């Protein structure tokens, strides 16, 4: 299994709660873009970009014959499409980018840290 904790923390502004929310939304979705033997071409980047503008949250399927590091590929797609890599399950990558006009996905806000409770008694 691919671990993306460091990559997501460095490349994105999404917190854990927001990533969990997006993974839950994407659960029933099918991949809308598939990378083939040519890899990440300008046409594929354009298709991912257009799909992100339409759907905000998409899955990208990487072909099983691709001999590429998924973490590096996810970072390339993030940079080229100005999106956030939310998750990687098997050979499927999940990307999110907020739509500029009329966004449909509202991310949960992160709660501010609570102040420590004073445990002393007033005697």
Question: How is this structure best described in words?
Answer:
It is a single chain. A four-stranded mixed β-sheet has the order 1-2-4-3, sandwiched between helices. The chain has one domain: YhbY-like (Translation Initiation Factor IF3, 2-Layer Sandwich), CATH 3.30.110. The chain is of the alpha+beta class and 123 residues long. Strand 1 (33-35), helix 3 (42-55) and strand 2 (57-62) form a beta-alpha-beta unit. It contains four helices and four strands. The longest helix is centred in the middle third of the chain and has 14 residues, at 42-55. Mean pLDDT is 83; it is low at 1-12.
| Major beta sheet summary | 4 strands, mixed
CATH class: Alpha Beta
> What is the correct CATH architecture?
2-Layer Sandwich
Major sheet: arrangement of strands:
1-2-4-3
Q: Report the count of strand segments.
A: 4
Structural class computed from helices and strand pairing? alpha+beta
Distance between the termini: 56 Å
- The CATH homologous superfamily is termed YhbY-like
Which residue ranges are poorly predicted, with pLDDT under 50 across at least 5 consecutive positions?
1-12
Please describe the topology of this protein.
Elements: H1 5-11, H2 16-26, E1 33-35, H3 42-55, E2 57-62, H4 70-81, E3 84-89, E4 92-96
Parallel strand pairs: 1-2
Antiparallel strand pairs: 2-4, 3-4
